[in-house]
Amino acid sequence: MPFRSGFVCILGRPNAGKSTLLNALVGEKLAIISPKPQTTRNRIQGVVHVPKRKGKDGGQIVLIDTPGVHKPDSSLGRKMMVEVREALEGCDLVLVIVDVAHKLDPRDQFALELVKQSKARAFLILNKVDLIPEKSKLLPLIEEYRKLYDFAEVVPISALKRKGLEDLMKTILAALPAGPAYFPEDEITDQPARFMAAEIIREQVLLNTSEEIPYATTVIVDNFEEGKRLTRIGATIYCERDGQKGILVGKGGRMLKKIGTSARIQIERMLGTKVFLELYVKAEPGWRDSRSFVEELDWRRQLEHRMFEQPADSQAPPKSRA
Ligand SMILES: Nc1nc2c(ncn2[C@@H]2O[C@H](COP(=O)(O)OP(=O)(O)OP(=O)(O)O)[C@@H](O)[C@H]2O)c(=O)[nH]1
Ligand SMILES: [Mg+2]
User: Is residue 207 in contact with ligand 1, taking CB distance under 6 Å?
Assistant: First the structure.
C-alpha cells in the first residue's frame, strides 16, 4: 500500500464549523472556536499523521482551516479573503463545510464559486447533523448542493460530537495521491506559540463580550519570554473606541481579569509551564481599515520580514547542544 499525502483546504461560510472540524481531526486545539461568525482570521495548518496498519494505507493529511467566506467590507475582511484564496491555491482537495441547520445562502454560494474557480476536487461535508434528528431531511439539501457543484463525495458529520470523522478521514486519505510525509511526526502545526497565545486571549474576548466588540477587537503579544518553568507574556487587546475599552476593562478591572485568568489557564496547558500574563487594553480607532495595522497581525509575514532584517547567521535553526 502506498503512503498517501496532500493538502486539504477546509472552506465554508462563517460559523459552519470549520475550526471545530480541524481541531477534531488533528486531536488538538489548534484553532479558536466561538458561536460568533468570523472567528478565524488567518489560515491555520494542522497535520494529521495516519499510521500504517494491517491492510490499511498510512499517510499524512495536511489540513488548512480558513476564515469564513464572506463579502469583505474592511481591510481586515479583504485580508481574510486573501487567506482563503491562498489556502485554496495548490491544494489537492477541498472540504466544503455546510451547516445543515441552515438553508443554503449567498455565502455558501460564494464558497462554491471559489471552488468552481479553483477547479479543485471537492467533498461536500454536511456538518451539525446532530441538530437534525430526521436524516431524510438532508436529502433535499444534498440535491440542492449537487446541482451547484459536482462533488466527488458527500459526507455527513458532527464535528462537535465527533460523529462520522473516522469515515471522513478514510475517504480523504483514499482521495489523496501517493506522496511523501511533508512534516515530521511530532509536528502538528506551523503556528508559533506566541500567535496561538494571542488567539487564546482573543477567544476569551469573543466568549465574554457581545455586539460589536468581538469584531472590533484584536490581540497582539508584545513580549513572550519562555522559561523552563515560567513563561512571561505581555499582550495588548486592541479595540476601536474608548467605550469598548471601558467594557473590556470592566468595573474595577473585573472583565479584564476574567479574560486574563481563563486565557492564562489555557496557555499554561498549551505550553506546559506556568504563565505570568499581563494584559493591556488600547483603543486604536479604525484599525480594521488600516492595511498596515492588519498586515502587522499576519505572523507569516512578520516572520518573513524578520528574516530579511536579520543577519544571515541568526536565521539558522538552533543547533543541538550535544
Ligand atoms: N451542534 C453542533 N454545533 C457545532 C458543530 N460544529 C461546530 N459547531 C458550533 O458552531 C459554532 C461555530 O464553530 P466554528 O468551528 O468556530 O466555526 P467556523 O466555521 O470555524 O467559523 P468561522 O471561523 O467564524 O468561519 C461553534 O459554536 C461550534 O461549537 C456540530 O457538529 N454540531
Ligand atoms: Mg473558524
Answer: no
